[in-house]
Write a structure and sequence with these properties.
Shape: elongated
Number of helices: 1
Radius of gyration: 18 Å
Low-confidence stretches: 6-34
Order of helices and strands: HEEEEEEEEE
Number of strands: 9
Largest sheet: 5 strands, antiparallel
């Protein structure tokens, strides 16, 4: 029988479990076996910079909305055009353009890659590799593409 005095501890344990068990492997920048669902938002927090990336999914092509946030450095020199996009077949594409206004500690813009529909066709996942953001030489964010997932 559960005593009333133990109820706050039980509630805390349930909330703690709920908050920590639903993480998607790609959310921390570490690619998992499946990654996040086809399209959606992912977060990479580390190296003094929080990176948030939104991708609409294969129907939206290779266009990523990227937000960079920090309190320890100026982000104006970050050039995400050095990024790479790859799929589970090993196709690798270099970034085409990073369009973002200067913003100091907070910056957002669009990162694009030039790919045709064949880049996504029949793939299980794609992975966005961001180079030299903050103190991290590389960040990897992975999304399922829906095919074979």
């Amino acid at each position: 029988m559960l005593r009333l005095g133990a109820l706050p501890f039980v509630v805390f344990a349930v909330l703690l479990t709920a908050c920590t068990s639903g993480a998607t492997p790609g959310e921390t920048g570490t690619p998992g076996e499946t990654g996040a669902p086809a399209g959606g938002q992912q977060l990479s927090d580390g190296g003094q910079v929080v990176v948030t990336v939104d991708w609409p999914g294969p129907a939206g092509g290779a266009l990523f909305d990227v937000k960079l946030d920090t309190h320890s450095m100026n982000l104006d020199a970050v050039d995400l055009a050095d990024s790479r996009l790859l799929n589970d077949r090993g196709d690798l594409v270099a970034g085409a353009a990073w369009v973002a206004l200067p913003g100091g500690h907070h910056r957002e813009g669009q990162l694009t890659f030039v790919v045709g529909p064949e880049f996504f066709a029949g793939t299980r996942w794609i992975e966005l590799v961001l180079i030299n953001v903050g103190d991290m030489p590389e960040r990897r964010l992975r999304w399922r593409t829906g095919a074979g997932a």
